[in-house]
Write a structure and sequence with these properties.
Radius of gyration of chain A: 18 Å
Membrane topology (chain A): Multi-pass membrane protein
Structural class of chain B: mainly alpha
Subcellular location (chain A): Cell membrane
Largest sheet of chain A: none
Strand order of the largest sheet of chain B: 1-2-3
Strand content of chain B: 5-15%
Number of helices of chain A: 6
Distance between the termini of chain A: 45 Å
Order of helices and strands of chain A: HHHHHH
Family (chain A): Belongs to the ThrE exporter (TC 2.A.79) family.
Keywords (chain A): Cell inner membrane, Cell membrane, Membrane, Transmembrane, Transmembrane helix
Pfam family, one (chain A): ThrE_2
Oligomer: heterodimer
Shape of chain B: elongated
Chain lengths: 152, 252
């Protein structure tokens, strides 16, 4: 993880494409971008402090979820419109791809060949991707339950 | 003094609001709350709601009167603008700024509102967002460009197939195939082809069902949570099949 911090800014366009796809109101777009960058940067911070990816994703998702909920509450909007768009840039696309690629390697190898290494690669990347996605989904969903409810 | 509305009208309005929420990407808990709040504010004393992945229904009571209704909710899409308008609609209703017939008209207006962004703009921006993914994964400038191109093409295909009412599995596998094939054919221009190809299919990731699924599970709506997770798994399987077909053709 030696990429410069400036790359974290790319989380904003990554989130905004999806925000448009989900028809987020134009006035809410900038907050989606800011939350996306903050979340991604928090995850990178955890990684540079020798934390692991899953824990970093969980922390980042919790942060996004809490801020989105508080912000949306003040403006009488549903918090999910900010949280979901902002969470998208943390999807573990590379691990997913590596897993599928390794599985395809098993499918295409000769009958006598030993696929143990490929199976391990596919399994490790697949499990990692699943854990990151779950951390992301539960981290975003949790603040809705944990924050105190106003009387509504 | 509040006007008294017929129970049937209350139910119709509450179910309509619930249906709109359900089809715009609200979790089960939110949809249920919207139905309950709408019915209560219009004068129902007791409201019982049932929400499955394909149907919503409610029974509302006032004194000795009772009314039950169901609606089919076949398609779960995402429309966060609608969800936002629905929230302000409900708030206006609760603050007594709308009577039942005004509320009905306002709801029709919300349901028919066009999207904020034209299809071509969305297609391009989704492509750009996959390009940004390639950057986040450590790709070089060429990787960003070819990912943007491949994903925009894939996104255009997806839009086309969704408009023709193909099932998610079909559009996920076809669109990922197109996006990856296009990106893969241009892979000689970049020194980081893997990041470009990994990023090119990410526009298909079922983010909303995954997060709503988690939220449903945490809210103890176990069945609906599992349905949403299963839906996401089918879409991911479709993406994987599209990827594997494209990789075979590319000979990687």
């Amino acid at each position: 993880m030696s990429t410069p911090w400036i790359i974290e800014l790319m989380a904003a366009p990554a989130a905004l494409g999806f925000a448009l796809l989900f028809n987020v109101p134009p006035r809410a777009l900038w907050m989606c971008g800011i939350l996306a960058i903050s979340g991604h940067a928090v995850r990178k911070l955890v990684l540079t402090m020798d934390g692991d990816m899953v824990f970093g994703t969980l922390l980042a998702a919790l942060l996004i979820g809490i801020v989105a909920e508080l912000w949306a509450d003040r403006h009488n909007q549903p918090g999910v419109i900010y949280a979901i768009s902002a969470a998208i840039p943390m999807i573990p696309g590379k691990s997913m791809y590596q897993s599928v690629q390794a599985l395809l390697g098993i499918a295409t190898m000769g009958t006598e060949a030993d696929g143990t290494a490929l199976l391990i690669t596919a399994g490790v990347h697949g499990v990692k991707a699943i854990m990151i996605v779950l951390a992301l989904a539960f981290g975003i969903a949790a603040p809705l339950l944990l924050l105190p409810k106003r009387s509504k | 003094m509040k006007a008294t509305y017929a129970l049937t009208d209350i139910l119709t309005l509450a179910l309509k609001a619930g249906l709109l929420a359900h089809q715009s990407g609200a979790g089960t808990h939110r949809t249920s709350l919207i139905i309950q709040r709408t019915a209560r504010v219009l004068g129902a004393m007791q409201v019982e709601v049932i929400i499955s992945s394909t149907n919503i229904g409610a029974t509302i009571e006032r004194g000795h009167e009772r009314e039950t209704g169901f609606r089919k909710a076949p398609h779960m899409g995402v429309n966060f603008s609608l969800l936002t308008s629905l929230d302000s609609w409900l708030l206006a209703l609760e603050k007594d700024q709308l009577n039942a017939s005004d509320a009905q008209l306002a709801l029709d207006e919300i349901a028919q509102a066009k999207g904020h962004y034209p299809r071509s703009v969305v297609t391009l921006f989704v492509g750009l967002s996959c390009g940004a993914f390639a950057a986040l994964f450590g790709g070089d400038t060429a990787a960003i460009l070819i990912t943007t191109l491949g994903s925009s093409l894939g996104m255009a295909v997806r839009f086309q197939l969704v408009l023709q009412h193909f099932k998610p599995f079909v559009f996920a596998s076809t669109a990922s195939f197109v996006a990856l094939l296009c990106t893969g054919l241009l892979r000689d221009f970049t020194s980081t082809p893997d990041t470009a190809m990994a990023a090119s299919v990410l526009f298909l990731i079922p983010g909303v069902p995954l997060i709503n699924g988690a939220s449903d599970l945490l809210n103890a709506n176990y069945l609906n949570g599992i349905v949403r997770f299963t839906m996401s798994a089918v879409i991911v399987l479709g993406i994987a099949i599209g990827i594997s077909l494209a990789l075979r053709i590319l000979g990687i």
